[in-house]
Structure formats: C-alpha cells, structure tokens
Amino acid sequence: MNGKLVAFCCERSGMVAWQEAQANGGLPAELEVVAVPCAGRIGMVHLLKAFEGGAAGVMVFACIKDSCDSLRGNLHAEKRCESTRAILRSVGMEPERLEFCSIAPPMGAEFSEVVRTMMEKVSSEEREG
Prior knowledge:
single chain; alpha/beta; four-stranded parallel beta sheet; 4 helices; 4 strands; about 45% helix
C-alpha cells in the first residue's frame, strides 16, 4: 500500500473542519478529501472502492450526534462503517483501517488529530506487514 488516506467529509461538518485544519497546516500530502452532501450518502461500496483504489486508510467525518442536518445521516454512516469493517475483517484486512469520526465544523484540530493517528496506524501496519 502507498500510505494514501481517503477522507469522506460531510459538507456541513467534516469539510468545514478540514478547511480549518488545512489553514493551520500539517495535513499530509497523501490525504485525499471527498466532499459529500451528507455522510449518510456514503455507501459500503464507496468505502470498499477507496481501499480497492489503493487507500491504506479511510475515514468518514460526519456530524456529531443530534446535530445532523439530515437528521440521521451520521447514524447511517456509522452503521455502514461497522458493516464495512466486518467485510474488511472477513477478507483479511485490518478493520482499524476504516475510521468513523463525529465532528463539528469548528473542530479543525480534532480533524488533524484523527488524520495523524490514522497515518501512524497505517504506517506501522505497513512496517509490520
């Protein structure tokens, strides 16, 4: 794997946090950000296609609980991540390579931290494997 990370970001929360994180610097060049109108629109196929396309790690940034403009999109996204982790496990991939994160718009520092943690996780797994 090449260390690429893919972040699916809700336009109302994750994208705003990403923009703040980007303005503060320090995000890896290997980060590919995909804007979605609502994290609830991200299907398992999108997550699996990201891995198939070479992603070492995939993250989903959704609205925090009880703050989703689409009411339950964040809950649907979290369930799809759980189901996708089970598929990853069944095909011999580390389910930890998929992260779900609830985030509010002004949480750029937290966005950066999740990305940094994922980068460390996939880098250490590649060294071990």
